[in-house]
Structures are given as structure tokens and as C-alpha cells.
Write a structure and sequence with these properties.
Blueprint: E1 2-6, H1 17-31, E2 35-41, E3 49-52, E4 55-60, H2 70-87, E5 91-95, H3 100-105, H4 107-111, E6 115-119, H5 123-132, H6 137-158, E7 163-166, H7 169-179, E8 186-188, H8 204-207, E9 215-220, H9 229-242, E10 246-251, H10 257-266, E11 273-277, H11 284-290, E12 293-296, H12 306-313, E13 318-321, E14 337-339, H13 344-356, H14 358-375, H15 378-395
Parallel strand pairs: 1-2, 1-5, 2-4, 5-6, 6-7, 7-8, 9-10, 9-12, 10-11, 12-13, 13-14
Antiparallel strand pairs: 3-4
Helix pairs in contact: 1-15, 5-6, 9-13, 12-14
Length: 396
Amino acid sequence: MKICFLTRTTLSHCLGGMEVHTYLLAKGLAERGHQVTMITTGHPEGKSREDKDGFVTHFISKSKPGKYSALWSVLAEEKLLELHRTDKFDLIFSESAGAFWLLKKGLNFKLSLPVVVALHGIFYNELKTRLNLGLSVKNILAVVYFLGLYLFRDLPAITKATAVIATSAEQKRLIKKFYFMPESKVFTIFNGIDTQMTPPDKELKAKLGFKPQDKLILSMARLKKEKGVHLAITALPQVLKHIPEAKLLIVGNGEYGPELKKMVTKLHLENEVRFTGTVPYAEIGKYFHLADVFVNSTIRENGYDLTIVQAMAYGKVVVVSKLKSLLGVIEPGENGFLVPRGNVRELAQTLVMVLENKTLSTAVGLRAQTKAREHFDVDTMISATEAVFNKVLQEK
């Protein structure tokens, strides 16, 4: 099978759940003998092509790295047509809105190419996220913006897709509802992770400035306000009243980072909080090993962050915001804990409970590891996606 991936961002641009999903899927399909070609936005360092892990990535050099734009659409179309003339693709895979420009134009019909779209979230999730952030001119304008995207970009594009992949049962329900998609065209496939554990770095804890007895709360996310890292910081003083050796380790980077650091200073938590910045994908396992508990206090309404399942795969207790899309992932008290979104008091109480009770955290962590390995293994994701590809090609 010859597959063309269209995506605005890859691991060469940044580290995030969508980027990891794209990489693992492309790599896995290539390992199974499929020819995988990826077209994406400009490389941060100006590269035009990369041959790595069995697949080829073409960077649209004149387009802004990691950003959708009119120029990206024009140049991506030129590159797609150029490659299709020689490679004769069988199918196009759209990572989120990567191929929406193509679908809106109906180019898939002209080329007789099925398009499978993977959606990690939709406009409705963004609307609810903005409302969760509170009423402000900025958020009201964002609501108008996302409504516009729904009406003039997403709806005209998604309805022309051959098939759509949702990452949870809740996301499937929303996709069918808002995009009028029939049951036969929407498939639920959990985002997979590499469940092979990275060996621990026994010196990393000391390198980061922690003491052997410190209990580490790990937060790994892109530093945007909607990711809710500020809630973990706000909860930390309450945790410290019961667990003086508690420390918060924040892995990630983003535009909200400076505000988070100001918050740490204001709360006098400079000795209790560490920021690592961006960590290479190959290294993140070492940070999961360090954690006594993993926290994801997101206020974002989307599928679910891959880091939650990754932490589970490392046998860590996860304390995360209660989202409908997580109900099939976490059974509260069994393999993790869900707290009401934005409830700092309950977040702190749950973290204290986990850190104080080693027997509980070990048992919950082991059950979390079993769940992650049985239901979220990357091979399961690749097989399910491959099955969807085969189905649409047979129907073609």
C-alpha cells in the first residue's frame, strides 16, 4: 500500500500527542512493508527532506513551520501532485486537518484517492475549552473563530472524507453528531503508545537537583493555559502541608511558560518546582521512571493526552481531570483517579492520598500498566488503522 500522510506538524517541529501519533503510525506502517510518504510544513532548520525510520518526509520549506496557511495549502498541493505522478498513491491519511484543503476542493475525487482523517478533537472541544477559561474578549473572539472554522473549513471538508477515525467513544459520538457522518464511516481507534519501557537513568534525579527522598509529581505537557499546569502548581502548597518532601517536575515548553514561572515565584515554590523545557521523545521514558505520581490537570476538552497512557504504561498512578473521553481509559480508584476539572482542593487531596499510601499507589499503578499494555499498545493501533485503510480501498 502506498500512503501519503498530510500533517501540519511532526516530531521535527515539536513534541506533542499528535506528533507522536503521526510518527508511531508512519513508522509502524513502514515496518509492515507499506510505502509511507509524509508532506508537512517547513522544517524549523530549513530541511526540505528527511529519510528516517523507513519513511520519507517532505517539508514545504516556504511555509511556516507547524502552521496552517494558504501558502501551505498551495505548496502542499503542488508537492502532492508531483509525488503522485510517480508514486501513484493508494490512499491519503490526514492527521487532523492536514488534508482539509484537499477535501474542500474535492481533489480526492478528481484523483480517485480515498482520504482517511484522524481527529483528536473537534471545534466543539475548543469551544468548551474557551468557555472553561472564562469570559474575556480574547475567549469570545476565539469562540467566534472556531465556529467559523466549523462552518467554513471543517464541515465542508470532513463530510467529503472516505472515513474518519475517532480516538474515543465520546469523540465518535460528537463526530457523528456535528458532521452528520454515518456509523459506517466513523471508526474508534485508541491512540497507541510504545509500551517498551526506556531504561531508567539512575543519575537523572540528582542531575535535576532533587534529593533521594523527594517525592516527585510529574506533569508533562505543552505549556499552554488550557493544559492546566497552573492548577498543579496552585495545588502544590496544599500538598506540601502533608508531604513536605513533595516536588513538582514540569516537562514541556510553550508560550505559557513565563506565566507559570511567575506563579512559582509568587507562591515561593522555587525550591519545589523544576522546569525542564522540551525533552526529546526518545528521552521522555526516563522522566516517567522518576515519577511517584503523574498529574494531568487539563481544562482542555479533547480526546485525551497520550502522556496519560504513557505514564500508565510505566506503572504510574495517574491523577487527571475528569473528561468524558477518559471514561473508557480510567476506572476511578482501579487504575487511576479522576478529579473534577479545575478543582484544586480535590486535586491536592488526591495527590496527598496517593503519595501517602505506597500500597495503594503500587496496586493502582500495576493495574494501570496492565490496562495500557492490553488496550493501547502501538501494534494494536497500527493493525486497526491498517484494517480501516484496507476497508476503504476494498470499497473503492
